[in-house]
Amino acid sequence: MAGTPGRGAPNKHASEGSPRRIQRNRQQQQQQQQVKIPRSGIVPTALTAAFDHPGIAAAIRKFVFETMQKGITGLRKEFAVLRATPDQTPKVPIDSTTASKFRYKDVYCTDKSRVILTFLPNFGDFIHANWLKSELMDNTFICCQGPLLDSTGDFWRMIYQEKIYHIFMLCRCEEMGKAKCHQYWPKSPGETLIFYGLLTVRNEGVTENDSDICTTSLTLTCKIFFMYLKHFILFKFYR
Prior knowledge:
This protein is of the alpha+beta class. It has 2 domains: 42 residues, no CATH class; 139 residues, Protein tyrosine phosphatase superfamily (Protein-Tyrosine Phosphatase, Chain A), CATH 3.90.190.10. Helices cover 29% and strands 22% of the residues. The chain has 5 helices and 9 strands. The chain has a 5-stranded mixed β-sheet, with helices on one face. Strands 1-2 form a two-stranded antiparallel ribbon. The termini are far apart. InterPro entries: Oocyte-zygote_transition_reg (IPR052782), Prot-tyrosine_phosphatase-like (IPR029021), PTP_cat (IPR000242).
């Protein structure tokens, strides 16, 4: 007969040395090791916030549980409903001045939070990029569409204008035979790209010490102004 938790004298041998207890302790240690995340480096605050705030952790668990319950079929149905729901958020119109800078015609750019280009204004003020702010993050980020051939110069105008020193690439230039992003940075060490005859981007070196990250050191020069920045390709997002 099973015992009632909290009643009766504890069995010293069962509690300390039984195979079942040892196995459970090992499982707990493994789980603790799996969720251990470094607090330094490039790991964003948002990634570690769940381990500091129980409410956030509970919300993540709820999301994961509901997602598993829906399954692939349920997620597809939910996506179809959301896609068919009119979005009233003001968006940048796709017209003769912006059409060549949209990779996907059904992925709009929210007008209120978009990055407005003011550097070299004769080349237009539009880039498919938006400011992203969150209470969970110390810094403000820019989420940008993977540059097209026609928008690569705009991308580097934005980098220079906003003094951005870290670029995180979350996709490949090509995935499953389809173009996802133009090769907007010089790929090989010593290679340079020049935009508008004014902005010079140079590859200063590539390191792949981390199995998940390829880091490229870049310099961006505009006349006498010099910027040193890092470009990260996060392999784990598409492996």
